[in-house]
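Consider this today:
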Amino acid sequence: MKGSVVIIPTYNEIENIEAIITAVFAQSDDIHVLVVDDNSPDLTPLKVKELQGVFTNRLFLEVRKEKSGLGTAYIHGFRWAIEKKYDYIFEMDADFSHNPTDLIKLFNACAEEGAGVSIGSRYKTGVNVVNWPMNRVLMSYGASKYVRIITGMQIHDTTAGFVCYKREVLEAIDLNTIKFIGYAFQIEMKFKAYLKQFKIIEVPVIFTDRTKGVSKLSGGIISEAIFGVITMKLKSLFKNRKDYEIKNDTY
C-alpha cells in the first residue's frame, strides 16, 4: 500500500482514535494516516499528538479552528494529500464502522483493477449493515436507491463514506466547486468522478455501527442529501447544455 494515506476526520473521538489509528497501521507498514480534527473539546488532537511519537513520520494531524462539517474536513485532507503527492487517498470514519482490514480491498480495486474510485459498499450484495435500527437501514438504503435513479450512476451505495481515490481523480475534480458538507458530500464527490468518466468499482464490505462515541447524523444532513441531489443533477444538465451550445457556436 505504498503511496497511500487514510484521512480520518474527527470531532470528539477520544474513545476511538488510538484504537483506529493502531488498527489502520497494522494493515501495512507503508500506509500513512492524516487526522483532520475540528478542535475537539474532548482533546482528541492531544491524543493524536501523543501517538505521533509512536508512529513517527506516518501519523499526521491537521487541527481546524471549529466544527465545519465532514465535507470541508475531507476537502482539507484532500488538498493536503495532493500537495504531499500521495497516489491513493482514502476516506474513513474513526468509529470502526469501516473495518480497517478492508483497506487492502479498496487499494487493490484501484491499484490492480484500474478503478479511479473504489467504494466500500454496504449494498453491493444485499444489505450488509450491523447494529443499525431498521428505520436507519431503510433510510440509508432508500437514499442510495433514490440517488441512483436521479443521477443515473450505477452505484449501489452512493452515500458510502469508505472510499479510495486515485490522486488523479481528486486533481481532476475542482474541489472549490464542492458545495455539500454531509451525506450529500459523499454523493457529490462520486457524481463528479462519474461525470469525469473515471472507473468506479464497488467493493462489498460489512458496515458496523459505532459502539463508542456519538453519531454526527442530523436532520439537516439528511435534508441536504435528499434535496441537494436534485439541484446537483439539474446543474449538471444545465452545464452540459451550455457546453453543447458553446461547441455548436464554434461550427
Q: What stands out?
A: The helical segments are 17-25, 44-52, 70-83, 103-111, 134-151, 167-172, 183-195, 219-249. The mean pLDDT is 87.
